[in-house]
């Protein structure tokens, strides 16, 4: 680092400290949940020393790529590992809890940047948490002339567009409350070829794959093929799952895995350990039998068409 200007030197030093803190935090989380209370407490004492050494609140810390992760993890350590008292309503929403932590523990540039990154990451990672919207008003109160505001405005606009979108009539959510098996689902579409996409709202590659669905939708409509989207999201994500179907304009049938046939899905489409890799495309014939357990993605539409045609011929 010799020979560089003082500003770059300070930023480089802080990046090293922040990256070191991030590595330490990851170790602490593992220790806290696997070892004795005494060991956990000894690591928490070291964490307090690390907090002094790493100076997370330093303005130059904000230039580290690990800054947001460190702030996020520190909030978790404070309220979950150390179990410092905090309003239970805050604990119900991670963004509110982190915002609270930032306002309480950071100042100046570190506080402003950490708060702003909450909004930006919500949009960039397509979380679209509706609970984050009211936090913008508090941010504006604290930093009315923030240079982050134009970027935050874009992030908030994406969030609102997601949460306020109307559901198209070609997106269906059939009632499957009485379904006990996967066959109960496919029997809803007897006599038709089914293209099934297994996905989840938290799956980045799943969401990225939706950029290629338009040609598939056109082909399915012209050839009477059912597009079935099977979500493995938990019940708590039900509202987000429905909104995301609209957000990505996923024409077709949408069902969420129920406890009654959850194990069957993981056994049928997962590996020997029942680990299910998604996105996962499946083609089911007109007879209800699985023709392609691992079908081609819509990204390769020509190959997928070939598989769908084969399923139509052999599944009658």
Features:
316 residues; alpha/beta; 6-stranded mixed sheet
3D structure, described in words:
Helix 1 (6-34) packs parallel to helix 3 and helix 3 crosses helix 5 (94-105). Strand 3, helix 12 (238-247) and strand 4 (252-256) form a beta-alpha-beta unit. The chain contains 14 helices and six strands. It is elongated. It is α/β, with parallel strands linked by helices and 316 residues long. Strands 1-4-3-2-5-6 form a six-stranded mixed β-sheet. The longest helix has 29 residues, at 6-34. The N and C termini lie far apart (71 Å).
Please state how the strands of the largest beta sheet are arranged side by side: 1-4-3-2-5-6
Structural class: alpha/beta
Gross geometry? elongated
**SS strand fraction:** 5-15%
- Given as residue ranges, the uncertain stretches (5+ residues, pLDDT < 50) are none
Q: What's the Cα radius of gyration?
A: 24 Å
Mean pLDDT: 94
């Amino acid at each position: 680092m010799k020979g560089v200007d003082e500003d770059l030197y300070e930023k480089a030093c802080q990046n090293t400290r922040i990256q070191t803190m991030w590595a330490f935090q990851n170790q602490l989380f593992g220790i806290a949940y696997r070892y004795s209370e005494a060991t956990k407490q000894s690591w928490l004492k070291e964490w307090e020393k690390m907090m002094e050494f790493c100076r997370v609140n330093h303005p130059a810390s904000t230039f580290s790529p690990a800054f947001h992760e460190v702030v996020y993890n520190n909030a978790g350590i404070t309220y979950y590992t150390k179990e410092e008292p905090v309003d239970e309503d805050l604990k119900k929403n991670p963004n509110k809890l982190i915002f609270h932590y930032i306002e309480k523990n950071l100042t100046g540039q570190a506080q402003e940047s950490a708060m702003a990154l909450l909004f930006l990451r919500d949009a960039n990672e397509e979380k679209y948490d509706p609970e984050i919207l009211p936090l913008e008003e508090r941010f504006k109160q604290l930093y009315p002339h923030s240079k982050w505001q134009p970027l935050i405005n874009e992030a908030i606009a994406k969030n609102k567009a997601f949460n306020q979108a109307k559901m198209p009539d070609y997106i269906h959510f059939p009632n499957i409350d009485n379904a006990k098996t996967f066959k109960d689902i496919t029997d809803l579409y007897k006599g038709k070829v089914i293209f099934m996409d297994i996905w989840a709202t938290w799956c980045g590659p799943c969401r990225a794959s939706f950029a290629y669905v338009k040609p598939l939708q056109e082909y399915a409509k012209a050839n009477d093929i059912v597009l079935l989207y099977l979500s493995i999201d938990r019940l708590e994500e039900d509202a987000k799952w429905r909104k995301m179907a609209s957000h990505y304009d996923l024409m077709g049938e949408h069902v969420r895995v129920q406890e009654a046939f959850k194990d069957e899905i993981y056994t049928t489409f997962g590996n020997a350990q029942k680990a299910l890799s998604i996105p996962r495309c499946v083609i089911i014939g007109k007879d209800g039998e699985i023709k392609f357990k691992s079908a081609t993605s819509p990204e390769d539409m020509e190959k997928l068409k070939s598989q769908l045609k084969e399923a139509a011929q052999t599944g009658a």
